[in-house]
TrEMBL record:
Domain of life: Bacteria
Family named by the database record: Belongs to the glycosyl hydrolase 1 family.
PROSITE patterns in alphabetical order: GLYCOSYL_HYDROL_F1_1 (PS00572), GLYCOSYL_HYDROL_F1_2 (PS00653)
Keyword Hydrolase: yes
GO MF annotations in UniProt: beta-glucosidase activity
InterPro entries per record: GH (IPR017853), GH_1_N_CS (IPR033132), Glyco_hydro_1 (IPR001360), Glyco_hydro_1_AS (IPR018120)
Lineage: Bacteria, Bacillati, Bacillota, Bacilli, Bacillales
GO CC list: cytosol
Active site: 363 (nucleophile)
Source species: Niallia nealsonii
One BP term from GO: carbohydrate catabolic process
Protein name as annotated: 6-phospho-beta-glucosidase
Length: 467
């Protein structure tokens, strides 16, 4: 069996808005994440009323040194997180950055460097400044491109000697399904149409490609990638109509990686735009900018789903994540996400066959209601089984010939769920004493999976078992 490469980037992943807390400290402005007390599917409460979990989250802002030391103890080679846009530009449209915000990330990157942990930094991870939402309408407004370029240029210049791996937009394809968190578009203020969404997506494409060019110009030895939410789909039946439905739905995701990895709009979108009366307004130079393609493709992977042309079954599935139909052959997590480790190998092969670019798994993990037993331990064998099975399939993909740069398990420290706004849905190797009723001491406790993952990294994946 092919072994993991010696330089494989083992690690974990976080997002600023889900761990940092200190949501208005040191000059930081409000973001879309700060006004969603019940997660991305809940109501927008702006301005915020009272305290939400994310406002203090797990207090990573004040405890990052302690947390990085724990990650280093596990042997992390890489930590993925994001720079909160509103810490650097509180409103998003200022001409000069917030010095306190810049200094925080300087100190943070210095701490990672002490332990030789490579930062993998997302520029925009569901934390658009609320001022850009209220004043400009989020990514529906082309003016936001220039604000994002200024933000990107500022952080590239500041951290060019500290960060070599970058991502532009987190799960950029989620804008189609959650326009507020993904694009700063308020469904309670504007009518959400396909025309509106795809124009906003075009603005993000231009901003992403522009950031790629700026990065390549300013940090020639850096690598910058795109990031999509990866949910492979299988036909529910062998009916050719179901197979065609998979092709159609797959293209909803491939569209995003196609543009960022190939540098142009794919031909299959012409029919979609025509049938949905969509006209993308492009300015002179947009097509040239889009040719600045990413160096690698990263993605999140938690589950797979099924697709069918059966309208009745599709209506029943509307409550599921991205409206996928349940697969009768797969078990589900406590939160109804279907567990499919082989789907990760399938996704890796599919993306590599399509693009022949390096891949990076930047989110994967099991959300579960962990608890501390009488001995003060968290025995999360279910998480160990989940991660072992998925990582074994990464090894299988390496054997298939897929080039994989690294793996960062989602929520390596317990954090506040993006989808539900709760903390009882835990992902981490490190338990944080913080609860949905806002109580807790913030004490960190190593789970059983902490020691398991440490061993996986020490053995460079050789300890993984084929179950």
């Amino acid at each position: 069996m092919t072994k993991f490469p010696k330089n494989f980037l083992w690690g974990g992943a976080l997002a600023a808005n889900q761990v940092e807390g200190a949501y208005l400290e040191d000059g930081k402005g409000l973001t879309v994440a700060d006004v969603l007390p019940d997660g991305i599917w809940g109501p927008i409460v702006y301005p915020p009323q009272g305290e939400y979990l994310k406002h203090n989250a797990v207090d990573f802002y004040h405890r990052y040194k302690e947390d990085i030391a724990l990650l280093a103890e596990m042997g992390f080679k890489c930590l993925r997180t994001s720079i909160a846009w509103a810490r650097i530009f509180p409103n998003g449209d200022e001409e000069t950055p917030n010095k306190a915000g810049l200094q925080f990330y300087d100190d943070f990157f210095n701490e990672l460097a002490k332990y030789n942990i490579e930062p993998l930094i997302t520029l925009s991870h569901y934390e658009m400044p609320m001022h850009l939402v209220e004043e400009y309408g989020g990514w529906t407004n082309r003016k936001v491109i220039a604000f994002f370029e200024r933000f990107a240029q500022t952080v590239f210049d500041r951290y060019k000697d500290k960060v070599k791996y970058w991502l532009t937009f987190n799960e950029i394809n989620i804008l189609l399904h959650a326009p507020f968190i993904g694009g700063g578009i308020r469904p309670d203020k504007v009518e959400i149409t396909n025309q509106l969404l795809y124009q906003a997506i075009h603005h993000q494409f231009v901003a992403s490609a522009s950031a790629v060019k700026i990065c390549h110009d300013m940090i020639p030895n850096a690598q910058i990638g795109c990031m999509v939410a990866g949910i492979p789909l299988y036909p529910l039946t062998t009916d050719p109509n179901d197979v065609l439905e998979v092709m159609k739905k797959d293209r909803e995701t491939f569209f995003f990686s196609d543009v960022q990895a190939r540098g142009y709009y794919p031909s299959y979108m012409n029919r979609f735009f025509k049938e949905n009366n969509i006209t993308i307004e492009m300015e002179d130079g947009d097509e040239e900018i889009l040719k600045n393609t990413v160096d690698f493709i990263s993605f999140s992977y938690y589950m797979s789903g099924c697709a069918t042309a059966n309208e009745e079954l599709n209506l029943q599935s509307k409550a599921n994540i991205l409206s996928t139909v349940k697969n009768p052959h797969l078990p589900s997590s406590e939160w109804g996400w279907q567990i499919d480790s082989k789907g990760l190998r399938y996704t890796l092969n599919t993306l590599y066959d399509r693009y022949q670019k390096p891949l990076f798994i930047v989110e994967n993990g099991l959300g579960a209601a962990d608890s501390i037993n009488e001995e003060g331990e968290v025995i999360d064998d279910y998480r160990i089984d989940y991660l072992n099975d998925h990582l074994y399939q990464v090894r299988e993909a390496l054997e298939d010939g897929v080039e994989v740069l690294g793996y960062t398990s989602w929520g390596c420290i317990d954090l506040v769920s993006q989808s539900t706004g709760e903390i009882k849905k835990r992902y981490g190797f490190i338990y944080v004493d913080r609860h949905d009723d806002l109580t807790g001491t913030f004490k960190r406790t190593k789970k059983k999976s902490f020691f398991w993952y440490k061993n996986v990294i020490e053995t460079n994946g050789e300890s993984l078992k084929n179950k």
